[in-house]
Specification:
LPD13; Large polyvalent protein-associated domain-containing protein
Length: 159
């Protein structure tokens, strides 16, 4: 019987306290994603900061995320099929519901691909410059990739 009380005590201290934290974390992420609807596609935008849990896990400073007008224009040119609504989804999923953080181009050591799976075959991806030298984290590119491309990125990241 004493062991049962120890187990219940352990669960109360460790497990049951996780649920409210997860709920708050999910609410925080959803709140940040909703703010993306205010993006002005005609100028530079400061987006909500990464979630605290992401920053802690990656060992990053808490600072804003910058989406520059020239990146918006370049992205529209390279991916004309992506609507503004899809762009919001891509940014929201990849920045605030990140599943994988993979190294970007080897020539750019501060570039990272933030990836989130959206269905059985596709993933949202945002390339971000995570530099401590700048005042903001800067979005470099955003688009959708297939699972085969994600696997290639994962292999490259392991090298």
């Amino acid at each position: 019987m004493l062991n049962l009380f120890k187990i219940l005590d352990f669960l109360e201290k460790n497990i049951f306290q996780v649920a409210p934290t997860l709920k708050n974390n999910k609410e925080e992420k959803q709140k940040e994603i909703c703010k993306l609807k205010n993006i002005d596609w005609t100028k530079d935008n400061i987006l909500p900061n990464f979630p605290k849990s992401f920053l802690k896990k990656q060992g990053l400073e808490d600072k804003p995320i910058l989406l520059k007008k020239n990146i918006i224009d370049r992205n529209k040119q390279q991916h004309p099929d992506i609507t503004e609504e899809q762009a919001i989804r891509i940014l929201g999923n990849s920045l605030y519901k990140t599943e994988a953080v993979l190294k970007g181009k080897s020539k750019r050591p501060d570039y990272y691909n933030l990836i989130t799976r959206i269905d059985d075959k596709h993933n949202d991806l945002v390339t971000v410059e995570l530099s401590n030298e700048k005042d903001n984290y800067e979005i470099v590119h955003f688009f959708v990739i297939r699972n085969t491309t994600r696997k290639k990125y994962e292999r490259d990241d392991d090298e």
